[in-house]
Amino acid sequence: MEEALNTLFPQCPEDLYGELANYFSKFSKAPVISKLVGRKILGGVGQPTLEVELYCTVKNYEKRICSTVMATHSQIPENALPETIEADEKERNDSVHTAVEWVNESLSPMLRHLDPTDQCQADKMLGEYFANKVEEKEEIEKLEEKAKAEEEAAKVTPTSTPKQKKGGKPGKAVSVEAQSIPPAEPAESVLRGSLAIGATSLAIAKAGAIICHVPLYLYTALLKHNQESPKEITLPLPMVTLLNCEKNSPSKLKLVKEIMLIPPVELSLKQGIDRVLDIQKEMTRLLESRSKMSGSQANSKKGKAQKAPPPASKRISHLGCLTAGYDNLEQLLLLMQRACNNIGLELGTDVYLAINCAAHELMDYDKGKYEILTGTFKSPDEMAAMYVDIINNFPFIIALIDPLRKEDRDQWSSICCALGSKCYLIAEDAAMQISKLKNDQNINIAMCSGVVLKYINQTKVSDLVELTGILDGQRHITILGSPDGESSDESLVDLAVGLGARFLKLGGLSRGERVAKYNRLLAIEEELAANGALREAKLEFIDFAEESQPEQLPNVPPAPEQVVALKTSASVQTPNVGQRAAIGISRKLAPVTSRKAPDSCMQSQTNKLRTFILQCYHCFK
């Protein structure tokens, strides 16, 4: 006490007791988690979701530190049947109810007295808890299947096998065309209650940032860079959704789900958002005039006054953008060009476009083709050729999201090699779940430029940190995207900034839950600029064709023992890694073969090694 008074005496503080409290606070114990409170609330689109509040014991008092709200996410496509949508809503409601029970009855006592700044330990405990729940579910399913099998076996009575009639017609042959495409992979089952894991992990991260007196984006960056504070931070470029072309609308165009605007990197984020708003206003004006014109034409034909369709500005989708339908892609893109030209902007220079195709919603499995327009179908190979023509004719499109299904891996490779040097080919639905991506260190997904990550279900903050590090090492760009059923929680923006995401996909500039995230991004830009820690973003494409094309190697027949060894190694190595390694080594060997007058021994060794590399490449390919 004497030391404290002597320290504060020269300062003559106005609030002596406040300064004494601050002085002694450094001797107090670190805050620890006291309890978690989970409750069911409504999200941005009126769907049930989970909120988790975190309380800590701070200086002997229990204090509410923060809360987080999980966004709802559904794998049901837009054109799903009504009974499918109803079943999904019921499952979501039950999942939220289970998640609330997990938080209040299990996770709260499990995490009590834990240091909220120890994110790794918290996520480890959450992961173990979730793994135990998965095992419990599997055991219950096995017991149910066993009981069902025993019940069916008890009902079965021995019957004579009917004889096959002579001259009977053979079974109906399956058409080759129906099997010409890979079947759709089953959607990953979501464990009921998994929302509790993601919400709790994020709440602990937010509490750790508050206790450390740093913003969440910097706290996330410290987690990714092993507690080393980055000197500069690059903001992700926003993909602002301008139009939502509903695939179940009466219009013909099915290929496009979202049209997004990407401001140029030369502009600040604030300038880019202002430019997008100007384009949005002009597009609204053009759509309203088109709606009035179509309404007047319909009235003149029928000779009777009828109510015109609602103006586009009043039809705002759940993505926070305008909703409109078109007959073909050229009509839509020309309207975009007209809107930009009307306000003195040029597509490809002053602003860029990105298209979300959501190709998994286009496939007609009876025909084995994609329905891009009403009644117009294309095979996967034709789709790849079509995208090449689109990008060549409209070079201002610099990103395609889900241009193909994830099962069409060969076509993904084709468009990446053809367009990767001038367009981002991004997998959203075509990428696997975060849990599978993290477990498979080789990122076993279709060839693409980048992956859209969403913070949903059992995803933990540590998962995102680890996965973005893997993606960076594989030269994939990271895009953080908000789910369809967004919430008012702004944490996604901080995660994207801290993890170093290249793009941020938040939807449109309408609806409060989405605008709040854009406002948070603007606030982070101001803070970084004031501290001199803002780095300018860059648009860098990946030339897949150059990477995947090896140098010409001599046509030397391989030795039999080499072929056997190659087959053995191919079974344990990953194609992507092996192919890149083979290409990299072959390029390094090129200068060696160009030396003058090599001796015969070295020439022989070089030929053997080059033959081995050639066989590796073909085997992996």
UniProtKB/TrEMBL annotation:
GO terms for biological process: glycolytic process. Pathway: Carbohydrate degradation; glycolysis; pyruvate from D-glyceraldehyde 3-phosphate: step 4/5. Residues 33-220 form the Enolase N-terminal domain. It comes from the Eukaryota. InterPro entries: Enolase, Enolase-like_C_sf, Enolase-like_N, Enolase_C, Enolase_N. Residues 146-173, 288-313 are annotated as: Disordered. Its EC number is 4.2.1.11. One of its GO terms (cellular component) is phosphopyruvate hydratase complex. Residues 232-536 form the Enolase C-terminal TIM barrel domain. GO terms for molecular function: magnesium ion binding; phosphopyruvate hydratase activity. Keywords: Glycolysis, Lyase. Gene3D superfamilies: Enolase-like C-terminal domain, Enolase-like, N-terminal domain. Belongs to the enolase family. PANTHER family: ENOLASE, ENOLASE 4. This is phosphopyruvate hydratase. It comes from Cyanistes caeruleus (Eurasian blue tit).
